[in-house]
Amino acid sequence: MATKKLKPMTPGTRHRIAPVFDDVTTRTPEPSLTLGIGKSGGRNHHGRKTSRHRGGGHKRRYRIIDFKRNKFDIPAKVQTIEYDPNRTARIALLAYADGEKRYIIAPNGLKVGDTITSGERVAPDMGNALQLRHMPPGTFVHAVELRPGAGATICRSAGTVAQILGKQDKYVSLKLPSGEVRMILGTCMATVGTTSNPDHMNTTIGKAGRSRWLGRRPQTRGVAMNPVDHPMGGGEGKSSGGHPRSPWGQMAKGKKTRNPKKISTKYIIRRRKTKK
After folding, report:
1. CA-based nearest residue to 102, from 132, 70, 128
2. Parallel, antiparallel or unpaired: strands 189-192 and 101-105
3. Fold of 3-201+260-270
4. Per-residue pLDDT reduced to its tens digit, 23-78
5. Which CA distances in Å does 20 have to 3, 25, 80, 103, 151?
6. Could you tell me the residue ranges of all domains in the chain?
7. CB-CB contact of 87 with 160 (8 Å)
8. Phi, psi angles (nearest 5°) of residue 62
9. Per-position b or e across 227-249, b if 16+ CB within 10 A of its CB
10. What pLDDT, in 10s, does the model give residues 73-123?
11. Of 31, 116, 191, 223, which is the most exposed, with the fewest CB atoms less than 10 Å away?
């Protein structure tokens, strides 16, 4: 997947860097693996707004993704590589030998016609899913489970990848995209390779309307508000607004938000990279 720089025919295309969909092979999803999905507009079951700057956006259908990869030792052939409006990575439609079809997060470089498998003793080739303890150190993986059988939760977005550093007892040391190194049970499943669409980070939206298509509403800067509306509001002229903080007073830069008593802290070998 690549990107293209558009000619400045309009103000919205002047700085637009758009994705190229040359890796997508079909525009129509598999009907049996799609569901209707509604929009909440950032509101909870009481109708109160709990997430700001949400609303609108293009209508979507949800693609049911197989994050567990629990169809073991049955070869699957890649039928299509598709665009999914609900995520940044591409998805791949698999047709198993027994006739079942499933969607997975497409690894980078996966092509139509390739055959992949999941299981405990399959080869650690691109697209294959197996337990971390059966992979050699140095293997690049994505769609990693945190709890065995719970489904992939780590490295699912476009261009992300984790690397196996070593093994000790029943745990595997994994280096995450943030730079954090943590121990994960070796019985957790992961898929070999990097997630597709790595150039997603290089795209630029170009205009505010495209954010609206994605369901994002405008944001008002805190320094542009009144003191009654935001801790950084008020003042004469363009005042700086004081220390950066949220509308509810929580420090926005530098404050550690992770609970030091969190149980999973003991599995972190090295914290993620932070700005000094």
Report:
1. 70
2. unpaired
3. OB fold (Dihydrolipoamide Acetyltransferase, E2P) (2.40.50)
4. 999 999 999 999 999 999 999 999 999 999 999 999 999 999 999 999 999 999 99
5. 5, 12, 17, 22, 30
6. 3-201+260-270
7. no
8. -85, 135
9. eeebbbbeeeeeeebeeebeeee
10. 999 999 999 999 999 999 999 999 999 999 999 999 999 999 999 998 899
11. 31
Q: How far apart are CA 124 and CA 34, in angstroms?
A: 30
Q: Strand locations in the chain, DSSP E?
A: 3-5, 17-19, 34-36, 61-63, 76-82, 91-96, 101-105, 115-116, 129-131, 140-142, 144-145, 152-154, 162-168, 171-175, 181-185, 189-192, 268-270
Of residues 54, 35, 34, 32, the one with CA closest to residue 43: 54
